[in-house]
Amino acid sequence: MHCDTLWYHANLITVDGPGLGVIEDGVIAATDGRIVHVGAAASAAHLQPAQRIDCGGRWISPGLVDCHTHLVYAGNRAGEFEQRLQGVSYADIARAGGGIVSTVRATRAASEAELIAATLPRLDAMLGEGITTVEIKSGYGLSLDDETKQLRVARELGRLRAVEIVPTFLGAHAIPPGRQAQDYIDEVCSVMIPAVAAAGLTEAVDVFCENIAFSAAQAEQVFLAARQHGLAIKIHAEQLSNQHGAALAARHGALSADHIEHLDAEGIAAMAAAGTVAVLLPGAFYFTRDTTL
Fold it and tell me: In this structure, what are the phi and psi dihedrals at residue 8, rounded to the nearest 5 degrees?
């Protein structure tokens, strides 16, 4: 069988069979950008490649998926990490106008071109580690114009690099300065979700259900609006306290509940029954210097 490329002398992780499905001294063949053969070296006798690449015993695995990122943003929070090292809680920093809201200010001030330039090195670093699919959340705009700006940048990244981008609308990430939570959630549900859905800018809607963000009732309002517009749902839940957001999300058929350090047995059971994926974020856990396990 003719093929374009044959990679040989490789150790393969196939994720097929027991464990990782490892094939030592394996081969992979591809034609027109698609894999046509995977197996042990002895299985390659029938292949006639135009190009052969000796992998020198390196490991090859399926492309990695990062299912929770906030990749598109401006500014940094280095000063806040210093505060955390000094014992100031993440919640106190957020209530003082830091945290998410500090990144919102910088992201609102940045143009789309500036956001692309800032994000590409972060994306390239991920691609260098073998990631081929990246979920990118908005959430640092907290206004229709700035949220859609982030989502457009996410889409553009997928055109600039050989990677699958999965955009998620996270307008309900924090309460904007000077706004009331319910008033803002009403805008998210009646204005923002319909707009991003109509523009085809997102595949899912996320919400931060927490005592410094939005209540379970407000999260449910977001879920209902998302479903009304044919969008999948996710939730940031149980990161700093147990608001029972994961169980709520599971009842609505959420794709995932993320963070969940304070998840209880009821939430675990609800997620298991619904097939809602648990997404753990050890980097965020480290940054907030939480100790709940």
Answer: -130, 175
| CB-based contacts of 270, cutoff 8 Å, min separation 6 | 246, 247, 250, 251, 276
Return the amino acid letter for 206.
D
Q: Rounded to whole angstroms, how far apart are CA atoms 125 and 127? A: 5
pTM for this structure? 0.90
Alpha helix stretches (DSSP H) within the chain: 78-85, 90-95, 100-109, 112-128, 144-160, 181-187, 193-198, 216-228, 245-251, 265-274, 282-288
For 112-116, which contacts have Cβ atoms below 8 Å and span 24 or more sequence positions?
112/149, 112/152, 112/153, 112/156, 114/74, 115/72, 115/73, 115/74, 115/149, 115/150, 115/153, 116/153, 116/156, 116/157, 116/160
Structural domains in the chain, sorted by start: 2-60 (2.30.40.10), 64-288 (3.20.20.140)
* DSSP-based three-state secondary structure for 256: strand
> Residue 152 CA to chain centroid, in angstroms?
16
Q: pLDDT tens, 193-240?
A: 999 999 999 999 999 999 999 999 999 999 999 999 999 999 999 999
Q: What's the chain's Rg over C-alpha atoms?
A: 22
State CA 190 to chain mean position distance.
Answer: 24
> From residue 6, how far is each of 128, 138, 273 by CA, in Å?
21, 40, 43
In DSSP terms, which residues pair with 137 in a beta bridge? Answer: 168
